[in-house]
Amino acid sequence: MHLVTILKPVKQMDFYHRELETLDHARLGQLQDERLRCLTRQLATNQFYLEKFHRARLDLQMLHSAEDLKRVPFTTKGELVAEQQAHPPYGRLLTYPLARYSYLHQTSGTTGQPLKWLDTREDWENWMRCWGYVYRSAGVSEEDLVFCAFSFGPYLSHWAAIDGARHIGALCISGGGLSSEQRLRMIIESDCTVLVCTPTYALHLAEVAEGMGLDMRSSAIHTTIHAGEPGASVESVKRCIEQAWGATCFDHAGATEVGAWAFDCQAQGGAIHLNELEFIFEVINPQTSETVGEGTRGELVVTTLSRAGMPVLRYRTGDLVELTTEPCACGRTLARIKGGVLGRADDMLIVRGVNLYPSAIDNLLRALPSIIEYEVEIRRIAGMDDLLLKIEIHEKEPFSQVEQSVLAAFRSQLNIRVSVECAARGSLPRYEFKARRYKRVAG
Ligand SMILES: [Zn+2]
After folding, report:
1. Which of 124, 334, 359, 372 gives a 20 to 30 Å CA spacing to 396?
2. Which are the contacts of 187, defined by CB distance < 8 A and separation ≥ 6?
3. How far is the CA of 155 from the centre of ligand 1 (A)?
4. Ligand 1 centroid – CA 31 distance (Å)
5. Helix 121-137 vs helix 156-167: angle between axes, to the nearest 10 degrees?
6. How many angstroms does the Cα of residue 328 sit away from the middle of ligand 1?
7. CA 37 – CA 402 distance, rounded (Å)
8. Which protein residues have a CB closer than 5 Å to ligand 1 (ion)?
9. pTM, whole model, 2 decimals?
């Protein structure tokens, strides 16, 4: 049984640029091609792509349309990292002389060596536009007070979120350098209306608030916006966040090398919009690299159209998505991805012959209200992954009872057997940025 969640009222359907967001398919294609031609002209001074085209025996001048783009080889993260290692510090990835750049950030290095990423003023404006879509489609306006619960540091998404809020005219507060308790007090004292953080951290903040005797459902927060992990589009995670905050939870997706490339909308239809105004998207089979159609899960490939200072062409994001062009109730014509980012292409587990992504486990465990936090140990035994779940539970519940519910849920929903272990309250790590709940251990 699920608790009925009473959310604060959602504002009227809002757009960042209604005319562009509702373009018909043919006109949208023309607009993408125009922007691609504009990017192509700038690429003539980008050494990395000039060489890439040369190696593929392609002439840069052939790149006129999204159709031509399909002949261009993919760009991978490994390739960008290798380029920066071979030609430190930035690789030959810059289109313009260094003096033209104003912003330098770096990736978190979750999946390897961090990448340094530079933006010109024009490129940063592109980021602001992308965030404009994220905020406005969630109904955020100049009347709102946005709280960004991030550590900041060199991470691009944190600064883009705060500048994006200013761009749409909202008042905003940086939550950098504060403890969770201080952040909660600030949210309440300043009557913040919008919370931006990872899904995991929204849940952690709610847990800390409970310990402080605070009920965040009575705070002014009416909207929460998340990225960094698949969580906010995972049904039971979304429900947990909405229950804890009494607010509507919105997902979006982005990457330092690309931009904020997808956004949720007020129709809340379980799929988020691809920003086809600023990017060209393709979905491919990660093994064969062939394009996959609607309704088939594949890896998202992105080309940035308006970030000429450090562009990426046909960039393999590693994110697994399922495309749909079914009309959305919000009126936008932009394609969507069902369930947001479903996982990472390299995160797939094979548990007793069943292919499984961490988001499926997250969805299952977050639907069990007795579980506060969890961690998963993966052992490779005879070519297959074996899972040990460490769970923190509410003290009032006997572990054996919770264990039985977990085992039953895994059996009935995922058809796999797992082991469950009880972790002491507060012993498992909490995450502010990207959660790392899955640990591979020697078999
Ligand atoms: Zn929509």
Report:
1. 359
2. 147, 195, 216, 219, 221
3. 28
4. 20
5. 70
6. 5
7. 58
8. 265, 267, 328, 330, 332
9. 0.87
